[in-house]
């Protein structure tokens, strides 16, 4: 079978090509890197094998030879393989080496080019790489310390110089370019996490480049085009503000999109993780209603009990929960406007105790998290229902690493959508200079008790209310 070397684009999942996306949706195996956008993996079909060959801590780094071997082996047993690479496969992506290995092994391959970060990231930061009357040359160069770039020669080309993989070497690069004759006041820009909701761009002069705080991945541009500022992404009421979203991994998307759309820089830091519990089998199988109060309960339900439960109607709390259910082909019959479980109880119909058979007519199944939620059960029982519930999962705090702690300390807002988020922030809560924006009074109280200096509470239990709280701060 064929191996497709597919460019995923620089970060915004919308920047993959139509052809690339089509292959991703139909292939048997995806072999992907660290810089390939994670959202794209969600496009693969059920049963597609996902192999992460991204860069890891040095000790366990996967070699290029091992990656080549995976590609060859999978293709040879008849699987169609997408090798998904950040940006364009042939721009500093080692895609050429992979193609050579495939050709050498007699495996068919095709290349689907992608939007390279060298051009796309700068476009998202408002910088056209060429501009009539300002720059008519584009040099794309690696800044990696192992490369043998002749910086003095690069300096002589003039025009626009775009440097990939140069973040950590930027001081030395700046000096070499100056030595080669590029004036020290030449405008530059450095764009981190371009085209993603984490995008941050900073402008400076060549002389200042070494001192600008920045971390990889970033694109550096040196040249007069850097003074053009056709910015459109980092605009909006929250431009220049950074927001940490502390939801469980995979659950942050909606909030990230909302804040990103307002121009904020969004950093997703999961502070909790879900642990699936051993679930006792059910005696009953037919229920009038099945109630879900979180997207996680939908997902765990479908991976554990779904086969043994039939519900006539489905009720959910929260838009995200409704979406999770819809992804299993079921539209929710009942959902309160707010994110609140109490509101679901309020709009829930009363059981009809006089109903004759079937017996399922007064029974609700409520698969739930081990933590809390007892009030829903009480509320539904008060309306005459018999509630059968099962604890499907629990949420445990995750310890943040140093980089994540630094991001929390450096950002303007930290969103807290569950009390368990606070636990993971633990001892640092009292030192956080930014504002904690809490979805509920409970989390706000916990935050204050732990010494948080600035706390905001959203007016409702909804993601939109969190965003409103930030906007009005
Ligand atoms: N094949 C890729 C480049 C791979 S080299 C492409 O065509 O874009 C990896 C380098 O690309 C990073 O060190 C960084 O310089 C740049 N890069 C990739 N994605 C980026 C992003 N979203 N924001 C900023 N730089 C990015």
Tell me what the structure shows.
The chain has 473 residues and is an alpha/beta fold. It folds into four domains: 2-114, Cobalt-precorrin-4 Transmethylase, domain 1, CATH 3.40.1010; 119-234, Methyltransferase, Cobalt-precorrin-4 Transmethylase, Domain 2, CATH 3.30.950.10; 242-271 and 398-472, 3-Layer(aba) Sandwich (Rossmann fold); 278-394, Rossmann fold, CATH 3.40.50. Helix content is 29%, strand content 23%. It has 16 helices and 20 strands. It has helices at residues 18-26, 38-41, 64-76, 95-104, 117-124, 151-157, 170-179, 253-261, 295-304, 319-326, 341-347, 374-382, 402-410, 419-425, 441-449, 463-471; strands at 3-7, 29-32, 49-52, 81-85, 109-112, 138-142, 160-164, 187-192, 200-205, 218-222, 242-245, 265-268, 272-276, 286-292, 310-316, 363-369, 386-397, 413-416, 435-438, 454-457. A five-stranded parallel sheet has the order 3-2-4-1-5, sandwiched between helices. Strand 2 (29-32), helix 2 and strand 3 (49-52) form a beta-alpha-beta unit. Helix 11 (341-347) runs parallel beside helix 12. The protein is globular, with a radius of gyration of 26 Å. The model has no long low-confidence stretch (mean pLDDT 89). Residues 10-11, 35, 85-88, 91-93, 116-118, 121, 164-165, 191, 193-196, 216-219 line the site of S-adenosyl-L-homocysteine. The site of S-adenosyl-L-homocysteine (SAH) has 25 residues, from helix 5 and strand 10.
């Amino acid at each position: 079978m064929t191996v497709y070397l597919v460019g995923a684009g620089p970060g915004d999942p919308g920047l993959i090509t139509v052809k690339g996306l089509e292959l991703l949706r139909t292939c048997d195996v995806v072999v992907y890197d660290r810089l390939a956008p994670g959202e794209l993996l969600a496009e693969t079909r059920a049963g597609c094998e996902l192999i992460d060959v991204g860069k890891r801590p040095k000790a366990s780094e996967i070699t290029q030879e091992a990656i080549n071997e995976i590609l060859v082996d999978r293709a040879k047993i008849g699987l169609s393989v997408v090798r998904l690479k950040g940006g364009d496969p042939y721009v500093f992506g080692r895609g050429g080496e992979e193609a050579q290995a495939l050709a050498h092994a007699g495996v068919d391959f095709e290349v689907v080019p992608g939007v390279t970060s060298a051009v796309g990231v700068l476009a998202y930061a408002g910088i056209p790489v060429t501009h009539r009357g300002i720059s008519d040359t584009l040099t794309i160069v690696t800044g990696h310390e192992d490369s043998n770039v002749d910086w003095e020669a690069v300096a002589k080309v003039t025009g626009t110089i775009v440097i990939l993989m140069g973040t950590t070497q930027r001081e030395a690069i700046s000096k070499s370019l100056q030595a080669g004759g590029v004036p020290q006041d030449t405008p530059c820009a450095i764009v981190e996490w371009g085209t993603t909701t984490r995008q941050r761009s900073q402008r400076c002069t060549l002389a200042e480049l070494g001192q600008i705080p920045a971390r990889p991945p970033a694109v550096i541009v040196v040249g007069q085009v850097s003074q053009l500022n056709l910015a459109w992404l980092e605009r909006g009421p929250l431009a220049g503000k950074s927001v940490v979203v502390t939801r469980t991994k995979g659950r942050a998307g909606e909030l990230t999109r909302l804040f990103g759309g307002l121009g904020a820089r969004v950093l997703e830091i999961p502070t909790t993780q879900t642990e699936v519990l051993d679930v006792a089998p059910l005696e009953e199988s037919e229920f009038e209603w099945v109630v879900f109060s979180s997207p996680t309960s939908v997902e765990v339900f479908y991976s554990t009990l779904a086969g043994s439960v039939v519900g006539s109607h489905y009720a959910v709390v929260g838009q995200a929960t409704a979406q999770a259910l819809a992804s299993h082909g079921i539209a929710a019959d009942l959902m309160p406007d707010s994110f609140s479980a109490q509101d679901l109880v309020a709009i829930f119909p009363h059981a009809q105790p006089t109903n004759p058979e079937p017996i399922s007519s007064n029974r609700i199944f409520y698969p739930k998290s081990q933590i809390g939620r007892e009030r829903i059960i009480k509320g539904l029982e008060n309306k005459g229902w018999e509630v059968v519930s099962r604890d499907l999962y629990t949420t445990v705090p995750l310890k943040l690493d140093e980089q994540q702690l630094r991001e929390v300390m450096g950002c303007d807002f930290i969103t807290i959508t569950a009390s368990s988020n606070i636990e993971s922030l633990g001892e640092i809560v009292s030192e956080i200079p930014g504002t904690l924006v809490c979805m509920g009074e409970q989390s706000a109280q916990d935050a204050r008790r732990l010494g948080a200096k600035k706390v905001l509470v959203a007016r409702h239990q909804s993601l939109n209310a969190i965003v409103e709280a930030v906007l009005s701060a």
